[in-house]
Description:
By secondary structure, the chain is α/β, with parallel strands linked by helices. The protein has 41 helices and 18 strands.
Amino acid sequence: MGGISVEFVDIGLQVETRKTAILQNVTGSFKTNEICALMGPSGAGKTTLLHILAGRDVGGIVTGSVVYHDTNECGFVTQEDVIEPRLTCHEALTFYSQLRLAAGTTAEEIEKVVQNCMDDLGLNHVANVGVGGDALQGVAKTLSGGEKRRVSIGCSLVTNPSICFLDEPTSGLDAGMALEVMDALVVIARQDRTIVCSIHQPRWDIFKNFDKNYFLAHGILASCGTRKELFDFYLSEFPSLPKDMKEDNLADLYLDYLSHLSYTQAVDMGARFQQFAAANKLSGRRKRSTLSKKPAEFRQRVPLYMRCYLVFRAKALAHTVRRGDLRFVFMGGSVWLLVNGLAFSGGSTEDDSLYGAVLVLLLFLFFKGIPTMANCVVQRKQYLHDYSMGLYGAFEFWFAVSALDLLESFCGICLCYFSWCYISGLRTGPEHMIYGAATALGLGQAAVGMSQLNMFVFPNVTFVNAVYGGLVSFLMAYSGVYCDVNDLPSWLAWIPDINPYYYATSALMQNQFSGTDYGHTAAMESYFNYSKSECLLATWLVYFIFYTCFYLSLEYQMWLKDYSKMWKAFMKKFQKSAGVDVPDAAEKESLIEKTSTLGDASNTFKSAETKATTGHSTTVVQGPPITWYHIQYSITVQNKDGPAADGGKQEANELSSFAFQQKQKVILADCSGAVPSSTLCALMGPSGAGKTSLLHILGGKEMVGQVTGTLPDIDYEDTGFVWQEDILEPACTVRETLRFYADLKLPARTRAQFRTEVVQSVLEELGLAICSDNIVGGTSVLSTVKTLSGGQRRRVSIGCALVTNPSAVMLDEPTSGLDAGMSLEVMESMRNLVNSGRTMIASIHQPRIDIFKMFDQVIFLAKGHIAYAGPPTLDGMSPLFGHLFEGRDMSRLNSADLMLDHLSVVQTDAAEKLSEAYKEYNKKINKDEVVVYEKPPGYGVQDAHRRPSFYFRLKVLLGREWSVKVMSNHTYTRVAVLALWGIIFAMPYLRLSYDLKESEAFDTIRALYVLSLFQATLTSHAGAVHEHWVHQSRAEMKMKLYEAAEAYLSFFLWDSLIIVIPGSMVMTFEMWLMSSFQPAADKMFFGISVCCLEHLAYTTIAMFLIISIPNSKAVETVKALMYASLGCYTGFLIKIGDIPWVVRWLCYINPAKYAFAGLMINEFSGESVECDDEDGSSDGCAQGDDYVREYDADEDTTRLGDFLAVLALALTAFLLNLHTIMRTAKSSH
Length: 1229
């Protein structure tokens, strides 16, 4: 080994939210040519220490010192692969090289660096393949998990750093991929580099490559050293252990032991280790009070202008070219022109019609920022990753995003504006076209900048949606269109002066009506406070202000992250005050310690209920054997002749050109097998082997493709299934979650007391009783707290399948994403369940030795073929795979790892040969020899009482939705925001009087229009909540917990009664009083009723878009176009009689039209209007009925008729939603 590369002394970290330090007095060193590991249970401080050593910001107060010896630069690889998914492997490495290599590096030198990096990491065969990822849509082929991980490592190695830190490099990878990645790191470490990585569950042949290991617990360095030194210390800790123990499972022994330590015990262990190290004179553990040497300076970076260009080019290539954002802009603009242009295509040149055309154009520009919000979440994540890596700064990202937005807006808005002018009859002279297009572009960019600023500042997605929708509506209300800005009170007069919408509206109005008679009317007076040029400059000035604030939000993202933590801490306190049991950090640590060991509760449910009353027995009996024969599963896929079709030799710019052909892809091929009764069986194999598909087929799940063969003859109603993803409602407690499943899965006539006993028994059986009243929490956008550990959440998911006391349970990746201790907890739970008589089958990726030994049977798959099925012993596997074990010390090695390594490189032809060899060897799998499983008389749930009724399921769902709505902070956020905006929108109309006057009539009409229009635009606050519910309900319907009808009914009912209707009612009531509408009780009641109904209708329509459109950006784009089109078809901006019949029907499906008409009738019908004459009489001026006819020209409706029309549209939207979710649920099954 070389000399010391990095030395750290007394590293500590303290944050305000924890009573104990995250790290405390951690000391050590790393040498050149070493590969070192940081290990410990979840929450031990591994990632935090890694970040501190790499010089990254972690928040809190950091103590101690870090010294780099002869280190040119540090590389850092985050746990998550945050790489632009639309770039190819070669492009991604080139992009990072261009930004990170020294200034003046030539293109040839960069290409050589990239090529060497791909050679070292084995990536040449995928050089021109798209990286891929969750956000990716439409790329022909994406990289495997191991390849993607190696690309992330390569992005840090392009600068040839002397030390590289990696956070969980094998996380989420199967055994073969993990070994590939670690082998690559070993090669890199031996090239005069130092590799330091945190890792959860290293197998022996990975663990043996580490030159030094650091084990942490509760932020304390519990022990460190070579394997030999650690093994000696472990034996000194436990003198009773046999002296002939091997080092093969040393990492597992340490992780198991550390996962059960309390904070005090960890401190004591750290002290004992220091004494052991001093007594044995272990190297590298001296402590010094001061270290004077500082890290070496980084090399000179690429110039700023070049970094800006490189980031812009990468963003443009990924988003504009490959994702097709520019095509998306043109498509959206074309749809808007088609829908709204026809309304003005009659060629009318009346000033009122032209006035409406300008306002419709403004509506389109007002809402242009909404589609941008769908990209901002991903963009923020990408920026934080690249910024923390030192790849580029805030200015470069800001420049790239701003320039790209400006380019897309220039193309889209100019096209829309020029086309709109010709369609609607607006002025088309060169001067007017240039002024108008420049103003429209400035306003559109201001809207986009405001959207991006919101998404990068606020941590809560629901809050962002509510704020942005309300802010746009607020600026619209003060733009001069819906109120006379000259009549605003003095304390509100400043709002138009900072409002880009007011300046843009004034510029466009002057551009159209300057020099005309209509331009001198009273209605246009407020638009001429400033000249056209001043308004244009002011619009662009506000745009620059928004983007400057956006830049500042990027520059101070670390401060905003602290603000986000403060927000979450506030919500914790709020939820505690609401009665939700949310433990703080110290309480959570204590809770996890107490529940880390499974309880000793009995393994059987109580049998208080009799079969005579419920048809259900809770006595555990012998589980069934599970047998299947000749299962074949294939799906139809698109055979894309893309850049990966020839091994990656095509040019990268051909990624967007594919030739589509359908073909059948075989997932499972002639699979037969048998799992004996009361057996714990593992399904294993590399990624893509068919484990999950086989498990789903055996579990009776409906598959997308074609399945043939003989399925298991078991009762699927008596079979539990645990999905890989924890589909748990984050706002419910553990007990409430299990009770919800018990209510829906137990027979209908089961008494409530018995359901309670079942839930309690499951809690005790899985060791969850001590945290039963804590909310589940999670990592979704709607979850602000996380109170359960990963192992506890996984056991809750298992418990949801156990409430019916099934005789067979199937689990998909039960240990995925868990550390060694949590994985062992979950597997011990499963072993106990099998010991109680159940049959269990689980797919699993990378089991450690003691987990692998827990299985009674293992089935290895390769390329859809069964390569081996039998006991997980050397004696069982040696006849077929003995060559893998020959000459190896199997006392140190895990046979599962060797099998997975071998199968991960097997091709389809070799897999078929392995399957044939297995079939020849194992003649016992024969249908004639199968033992038929017969149930004991009366066992299980009787068919007549198998499932609760529709009404009972609806009752249970209503109960859960009530708990979610009451306990979720998003409920209060949505209602509070609506109430706030109601006050703000009513402020411009405070001067209006209760008596109808001619001078105030138009302002009253505008106030009614604002009231009806904003009931639609403010529905954006519910987007994130609706998306979460759709995801949750689809997953639970896939489990067959309930049907779509009761799910949607329960959500719709409480969402309407608790949020939508109360929020709209408060907002309407505030506007009604402050705007001095008719105070009569019947008129106020009608106005509030019709507005609430309209808001409910548009909320339902917005939810329909989320249900029916899978792409979030498409949803936001459609919503923006819908909001921008509402004004055309209400009768306010253009008379309904002037709209061509081709699109006039859109008026009759527009709830805002009927709401506006009903409010007009309610306010003006039969009312007299005071004229502006000196005598104030009603003679000689328009009366209330005249105003009603003017804005509802071709209609002869009543107030009740408009109300019923809105009701009918709301009901139609509700039924359409119900039909859509039922259809999608059926198709997903």
